[in-house]
Write a structure and sequence with these properties.
mainly alpha
Amino acid sequence: MQSKDYLQHLYEYNYWANKRYLAVAGALSEEQLFRKQGHSWESVHAVFVHMMSSERMWQQRWHGEKGEFLDPKDFPSVASIRDYWVDVEKNMSAFLAEQTEQSLLRDVTYTNPKRETFTLPLWQMVVQPPNHNTHHRGELAAMFALMNIPHPEEEVIQYYLIKSGQRKE
């Protein structure tokens, strides 16, 4: 399997897992959605906005733009997050489709919000958003558990078992 194929599979898994967790969040009350729980971004709502914002910011960096965080106030509901994320996902899928094995090897320089500048091969940056989202889905799982809210398994092996027909959704 080539790098580009692997990255496309990685993002398919990432979006599958995100959608499963967004579905859980969509059934929460407003109080549960915005409840401060002491994790890195405090609430379920804030974690989702951060995940989406970060993914968008990486895309901006790869296009040579200054990455900017989204304002959580612009996303008052899970539906508003889900609707905006559709475009983020489409843009990412289009970006990945444009890449070649060679373009994924090119160095990209970016500056983070702390004004630190770094250079890495593009493929190493492209793996960051799904990895980052996995970390935050772990936090969401903890938040859901603290509220006694059932949530699905989202590990990559579950995705491949369901995709292969060996497990049901």
